[in-house]
Amino acid sequence: MDHDFFTSQPVRGAKAYYLKMVLHDWPDSACRDILGNLKPALTPGYSKILINEVVVPDVGAGWFETGVDTLMMVCRSSTERTETMWRQLIESAGLKITKIWVCGDAVERLMEVELA
User: Fold this and answer.
1) What is the tens place of the pLDDT at every residue in 69-83?
2) What is the pLDDT of residue 30?
3) Bridge partners, residue 115, by sequence
4) Active site residues
5) What digits encode the pLDDT tens for the residues 86-116?
6) Is 90:39 a contact under the CB 8 Å cutoff?
7) Residue among 16, 93, 14, 94 nearest 49 (CA)
8) Which pTM value belongs to this model?
9) Candidates 3.20.20.80, 3.40.50.1580, 3.30.1330.10, 3.40.50.150; CATH matching 16-115
10) Torsions phi, psi for 17 (to 5 deg)
């Protein structure tokens, strides 16, 4: 279903809302708008936002994550976020990360997010 994520989410009370590589090339203010448009659709204690993004480790980041970060800076005047940056962004939107799922050696993570 087509949906402009800068408008209110029309599907209410779903178990999961999945965002794959959506937030990484938007500034924090736009990400807060996107997440803010999802919040009214969430059912407390039931609904989750699943955010599939690159999560750069706070220390010991590998060559791929730092390379993608540099690419984002050059091409989009943006950045890949560290885990701390993701937590700050999510919390500033009135949400919380309940778990970050790691998938082997992949640089992408699945952040499980719910209402704060």
Assistant:
1) 888 888 877 788 999
2) 95
3) 95
4) 24
5) 999 999 999 999 999 998 888 899 999 999 9
6) no
7) 16
8) 0.91
9) 3.40.50.150
10) -120, 120
How many Å apart are CA 36 and CA 76, to the nearest integer?
A: 23
Number of residues in the chain = 116
Q: Can you tell me which residue has the tokens 């952040």?
A: 111
| DSSP string of 7-75, one letter each residue | S--SS-S-SEEEEES-STTS-HHHHHHHHHHHGGGPPTTT-EEEEEEE-B-SSS--HHHHHHHHHHHHH
* Tokens matching residue 4: 């402009």
The percent of residues above 70 in pLDDT, for the chain, comes to 100
Contact status, residue 80 vs residue 47, Cβ threshold 8 Å: no
